[in-house]
Amino acid sequence: MRTRGDIECWLTDMDGVLVHENTPIAGASELLAQWRAEGTPFLVLTNNSIYTPRDLSARLRASGLVVPESSIWTSALATADFLQSQMPGGSAFVIGEAGLTTALHEAGFILTETAPDYVVVGETRNYSFEAITKAIRFISGGARFIATNPDATGPSTEGVLPATGAIAALITKATGKEPYIVGKPNPMMFRSALNRIGAHSENTGMIGDRMDTDIVAGIEAGLHTVLVMTGISDQREIERYPFRPDEILGSVAELVRDEPIESDLADGEDGLSEGL
To answer: What's the whole-model pTM score?
Structure first.
């Protein structure tokens, strides 16, 4: 049976595992420093497609966590990677922000409002009726329907906001077409992340705080799964599901070894330049 000692590479969720509302979770900084010091390949995963890895790296650094942009894998990057494999040099009509449009551009896609091959829906704070109408017409006309992630709502300081899944559902209702969703819980996102760091499922662990996305996708991708209790899951939530993670921990602090790891947060740009 595979144990934590067999794990050589790590994937980890971000919100609820490393940070909570821009506040670092106990042990997160030390675990990241441990991985960097040992040269352990890792990626921080997020279903949020709004921000580029550079944006997210800066936001995490402002929270006290050093994560190079090369160590961040978003649903936007996974979506771009998938579409590039399906139709190199294709075209797309996009509802989303810079994180998604930049990823698609870098994957060689043309963003267009004229007969696109794909309609790609991601996270945005500026959904427009006009853009949704165009998406519906393109899909009805034969464009393939893609969504970066299934999350129906997202958090804000004022309360919940409609997210990608809610807008995709509106388009589905109007077209009768379901989107192909690339982000968690589709294990496709984990497989593309493994490819990014040259890892194999047999020796890779996944740390998450949600049974319905992180853990089930990790299991389906063949990873060693670790559920931490610093996010939304509690024991009652765990009992709802017919599957179990390999480990249940209070927080990522339990993955940090006893010997102290010096943080390189003060190392300036050197910390950000370290890649995989």
So the answer is: 0.89
